[in-house]
Amino acid sequence: MVNVLVVGSGGREHALGWKLAQSPKVDKVYFAPGNGGTQNNVNISSDDIESLAEFAKENDCVTVVGPEVPLSNGIVDEFVKKGLRVFGPTRDAAQLESSKIWAKNFMKRNGILTARFEVFDDSTKAIEYAKSVDYPLVVKADGLAAGKGVIVCDNSSEAVDAINKMLVQKNFGAAGLRIILEERIDGVEASFIALSDGNTAYSMATSQDHKRIYDDDKGPNTGGMGTYSPTPVIDDSTANEIQKNVIEKTIASMKKEGIVFKGFLYAGIMLKDGKPYVLEFNARMGDPECQPIMMRMDSDLFEYIQACIDGTLSSLPRMSWKKHSAVCVILASKGYPESYPRDEQILGLDDVTPNSQVFHSGTRKEDGKILTSGGRVLGVTAVGETLEAAIANAYLRVGKINWPSKYYRTDIGKKGLAWRK
Ligand code: AMP
Ligand code: GLY
């Protein structure tokens, strides 16, 4: 029996730890720093690589890294150097997420389908280009920007504004000093996540995120306001195509370029005319994709993580998934993704309904009370025999939980229902 250290403090980490704690091979799951809903919290920031390594060594932990920032700072490289067992990509492998330009060029040279694009660091040239193309553009900051560095534009004047924000006003700091102007692809978006040991990649269950803050996909992008799994948007033949032409091709091309990608590989997919375009890669699990996916996972996640670390994934069968649907509704604080109040007490968490699970993200515990501490606060997740039933179960639990600034979308999963009709 070994212990697990989950690095991070979001709903994704809570869900990963929840699942890993169910493994007969795992003794204790620690979270660093964790949140108000996780147990065995260790007061070390997810950026303090040295202290995390020390803790993992002293407590005989296999470490699972949730967020992109420590990954792109090389937490895995450091742990490996110290002989510690860790699941996640190295700094070089995490470039798939930490540099959008690197990722776009990687896709281009390896024939992975993605939107046409150009790279700029000069605003005059970028603006000239934006005015010269006759299709709508998406303007992207190269570096990590907590999901905010992408501006989807309707016309060239919006694109010019976005270019100015990044290259002239430098609103995105160093992350926005080089930008991508890429063709907007109008289609249906879904998330496709796999885990890999660097040679073999097994897909997780499919899911669909709801990125905009308001119902009917209105308003600004967020980190994700809700998800469901599986999604009918990715049928079996599309899943096979993505598995082969995106996931396996990426892992093999990385290897060919001398980079071993171990960890979760997340492809943000836009399906247009039946073809899967890669909008972006993340070198980690999605949040809130992770929550419903973990509630559907039948296999022992820990066994798969161990096999990825050892490079023996192909010796295991493909992961198995419960047939039921799962839905995660994010409860946020009003004002997110801009500014929002904090430190409000959350009530009703003990009012448990069947088939549901509450994963915490922006919460903290103080004097036995649970207080809000972030924009996305809880991921209320439920399963049901059908998507309809899972939606009903999730919203039943949502109704039991309250705090003054509670905000949520009321239409999570509806896109999946509409797709079938
Ligand atoms: P990214 O962080 O690159 O996934 O971008 C964030 C969001 O912007 C995506 O989830 C999409 O909703 C949208 N987006 C990004 N690239 C494109 C594109 N080429 N066409 C249309 N929408 C896009
Ligand atoms: N939910 C989208 C992401 O994790 O990036």
Summarize the structure.
The chain has 421 residues and is α+β, with helices and mostly antiparallel strands.
Structural class: alpha+beta
- Using the coordinates shown, work out and report the CATH topology of the largest domain: D-amino Acid Aminotransferase, Chain A, domain 1
Low-pLDDT stretches? none
What is the count of distinct domains?
4
**N- to C-terminal distance:** 48 Å
- Rg to the nearest angstrom? 21 Å
User: Major β-sheet, in short?
Assistant: 6 strands, antiparallel
Shape: globular
How many strands appear in the DSSP assignment?
A: 22
Proper CATH architecture of the largest domain? 2-Layer Sandwich
CATH class of the largest domain: Alpha Beta
Q: Tell me the β content.
A: 25-35%
Attached small molecules: adenosine monophosphate, glycine
**Range of helix content:** 25-40%
List keywords for this structure.
29% strand; six-stranded antiparallel β-sheet; D-amino Acid Aminotransferase, Chain A, domain 1; alpha+beta; globular; 22 strands; Rossmann fold; binds adenosine monophosphate; 421 residues; binds glycine; four-stranded parallel β-sheet; Dna Ligase, domain 1; 30% helix
